[in-house]
Amino acid sequence: xRPLDEVFERLAGSAFRRRFRLGAREAEYLGAKGxxxxxAHGRDFIEQRLxxxxxxxxGKQTPMRRHPVFVAQHATAxxxxxxxxxxxxxxxxxxxxxxEKDRVLAVIERWIVNAEKPQPDxxxxxxxxxxxxxxxxxxxxx
Length: 142
Hints:
Helix 4 (35-50) crosses helix 7. A hairpin with a 5-residue loop joins strand 1 (119-120) and strand 2. A two-stranded antiparallel ribbon has the order 1-2. It is mainly alpha-helical. Helix content is 56%, strand content 3%. The protein is globular.
């Protein structure tokens, strides 16, 4: 497995991976359920959809939206076994070990936690990863 900082640095160089953001629906779900519950769902998704040696519909088993974990999986290349092999150095064709499943969940958690933090834009100004309607809802009263 590749070091996490190295993986996130490589992911930042991918236009495809960088385009993923939590939409209003996913952000609202995360706020309502909390990180702990969302990560419990993530553990279940990993176990059912990613951990088997030959997951059914591999490469198509992870929806692109409707749950914060699904968005995070695409953003972090933890969505299918070929992405895990390419980006994380976790070989396909065998079941994931407990350590590998924990690692995938840690990657997803890191992305979700950072998705809620404002990120600097090219000029160094802070910009939010949240959709405009959620930014307005969370801004201080004027």
